[in-house]
C-alpha cells in the first residue's frame, strides 16, 4: 500500500530533515552578515546545472544517477542542460576518441565562467583500457578537470560522491579566483584565451 | 545450370590464363589472387560477364604480412553475386614501399569510403580515387595504425604516467 501524503508533509515521527546550514557570520535580531563569497558559493553549489557529455557506458550509469532511485535532483542538479552556454558543470562520461577531442574542447570553450569539469570513469580520466592510437589518454590533456571519479564504470553512488566533491569546490571557491593570476596560468597552459 | 566455384574458376583461367593464381576454397569461399596491375581488369570482367554478375562489392580491406618480402600488403575485395548468391574473395599483393593500386571507384561507387578506410589504416594509395584522405582517424595522424610496424608496447611513451600504470 502506498504511503499517505501526510507522511511527507507533516514529518510525523520527528525524522531529521536536512536543511543546508547557513555560512559562518554574525547574527543579530533581524540581520545576518557574512562574506559575499560564502553566499554566492552557497547559492551556486546548490543549483548546479550539469551538462552531460556522455559517450559510452558511464553515460548509462549517469542516467541511473539522474533517475528516481539515486536522484541527483536532491543536490539541486535536476536541471540537466544540453546547451553549454547555460551550464556550470561539464560532466564528461565515457571514452573520448582523439577525433572527439576538439569537439569536447569546443563545448568547454562555449561554457560561460564560472565552469567546472567532472571526469567520470577510467576512460575519460586516463584512457582506461583503451591504450590505443585512437583514444585520448585522459581529457585533462585538452581541458582542465576539477574532479575525477574512478571506476569502470563508477556506480551511481560514486557519481554522487564526485558531485558532492564538486559542490564542496564550488561552495568554497573564492569569488575572485577566476580573475586571478594562477587561474590565468592554468588556462594558458591549455592554450585557452 | 547454377553457377559454381568451378565454373567461375574455369572462366577466370580461360580469360586471364596463368595470371590468376592461388585458387583455394576455405569453407567453400572461392579465393584467388592476381597481379596488382590487373585488379581493375579482373573486377571489370567479374562485373560485366553475363553469367558471373559479381556486381556487389561487400568489402575492401587490407592485410599486412611483414615477413612477405616485396608483397607485404594484400588488398582483399569481397564480391557478391546477388542473383545466384555466391561470394568470392579476390586478393592483390603490393610492395609496402610503393603501395599504389588502381581505384575501383569507377566500377563500384561503394568502394569510395572503403578505399578511404583502407588508406587510412594501411596506407594503400588508391590511384585515381577522387578524394583519398583519412576517414576515421584524426587528420593530423602521420602513420597507418593497422600496419604491423609497431612494438606491442612503446616504452618511450609519455602520455601515460608510469607510476599510475605499474610500468
Number of strands of chain A: 6
Mean pLDDT across residues of chain B: 89
Largest sheet of chain A: 4 strands, parallel
Order of SSEs of chain B:
HEEHEEEEHEH
What Rg of chain B do the Cα atoms give? 19 Å
Q: What gross morphology of chain A would you assign?
A: flat
- Molecular shape of chain B: elongated
Strand order of the largest sheet of chain B: 1-2-5-4-3
Low-pLDDT ranges of chain B = none
Strand proportion of chain A, as a percent range, falls in 5-15%
State the low-pLDDT regions of chain A, or none.
none
Largest interface, and how many residues on either side?
Answer: A-B, 10 and 8 residues
Order of helices and strands of chain A, N to C? HEEHEHEHEHEHH
Helix count from the secondary structure assignment of chain B: 4
Assembly category? heterodimer
Overall helicity of chain A? 25-40%
How do you describe this structure in short?
The complex is a heterodimer of chains A (193) and B (167). Chain A is of the alpha/beta class.
How would you describe this protein?
The complex is a heterodimer of chains A (193) and B (167). In chain A, 35% of the residues lie in helices and 12% in strands. Chain A has 193 residues and is α/β, with parallel strands linked by helices. In chain A, a hairpin with a 2-residue loop joins strand 1 (26-28) and strand 2. The longest helix of chain A is centred in the last third of the chain and has 17 residues, at 156-172. The mean pLDDT of chain A is 88. Chain B is α/β, with parallel strands linked by helices and 167 residues long. Chain B starts with a helix and ends with a helix. Chain B is built from four helices and seven strands. Chain B is elongated and about 70 Å long. Chain B has helices at 5-16, 39-48, 111-122, 162-165; strands spanning 21-24, 30-34, 56-64, 73-81, 86-94, 100-102, 125-127. The A-B interface holds A 98-99, 101, 126-127, 131, 133-134, 137, 141 and B 136-138, 141, 145, 159-160, 164.
Amino acid at each position: 500500500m502506498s504511503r499517505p501524503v501526510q507522511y511527507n508533509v507533516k514529518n510525523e515521527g520527528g525524522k531529521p530533515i536536512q536543511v543546508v546550514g547557513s555560512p559562518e557570520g554574525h547574527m543579530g535580531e533581524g540581520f545576518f552578515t557574512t562574506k559575499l563569497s560564502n553566499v554566492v558559493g552557497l547559492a551556486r553549489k546548490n543549483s548546479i546545472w550539469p551538462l552531460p557529455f556522455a559517450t559510452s557506458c558511464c553515460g548509462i550509469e549517469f542516467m541511473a544517477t539522474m533517475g528516481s532511485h539515486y536522484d541527483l535532483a536532491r543536490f539541486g542538479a535536476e536541471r540537466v542542460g544540453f546547451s553549454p552556454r547555460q551550464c556550470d558543470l561539464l560532466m564528461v562520461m565515457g571514452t573520448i576518441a582523439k577525433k572527439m577531442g576538439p569537439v569536447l574542447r569546443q563545448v568547454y570553450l562555449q561554457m560561460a565562467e564560472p565552469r567546472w569539469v567532472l571526469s567520470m570513469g577510467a576512460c575519460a580520466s586516463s584512457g582506461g583500457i583503451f591504450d590505443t592510437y585512437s583514444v585520448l589518454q585522459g581529457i585533462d590533456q585538452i581541458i582542465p578537470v576539477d574532479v575525477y571519479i574512478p571506476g569502470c564504470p563508477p556506480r551511481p553512488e560514486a557519481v554522487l560522491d564526485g558531485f558532492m566533491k564538486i559542490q564542496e569546490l564550488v561552495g568554497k571557491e573564492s569569488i575572485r579566483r577566476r580573475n586571478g593570476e594562477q587561474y590565468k596560468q592554468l588556462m594558458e597552459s591549455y592554450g585557452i584565451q | 545450370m547454377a553457377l559454381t566455384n568451378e565454373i567461375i574458376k574455369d572462366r577466370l583461367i580461360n580469360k586471364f590464363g596463368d595470371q590468376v593464381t592461388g585458387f583455394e576454397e576455405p569453407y567453400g569461399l572461392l579465393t584467388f589472387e592476381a597481379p596488382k596491375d590487373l585488379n581493375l581488369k579482373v573486377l571489370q570482367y567479374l562485373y560485366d560477364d553475363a553469367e558471373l554478375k559479381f556486381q556487389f562489392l561487400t568489402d575492401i580491406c587490407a592485410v599486412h604480412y611483414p615477413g612477405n618480402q616485396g608483397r607485404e600488403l594484400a588488398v582483399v575485395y569481397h564480391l557478391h553475386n546477388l542473383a545466384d548468391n555466391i561470394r568470392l574473395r579476390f586478393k592483390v599483393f603490393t610492395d609496402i614501399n610503393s603501395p599504389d593500386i588502381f581505384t575501383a571507384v569507377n566500377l563500384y561507387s561503394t568502394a569510395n569510403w572503403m578505399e578511404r578506410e583502407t588508406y587510412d589504416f594501411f596506407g594503400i594509395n588508391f590511384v585515381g580515387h577522387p578524394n583519398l584522405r583519412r576517414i576515421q582517424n584524426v587528420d593530423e595522424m602521420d602513420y597507418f595504425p593497422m600496419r604491423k610496424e609497431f612494438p606491442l608496447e612503446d616504452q618511450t611513451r609519455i602520455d601515460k604516467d608510469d607510476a599510475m600504470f605499474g610500468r
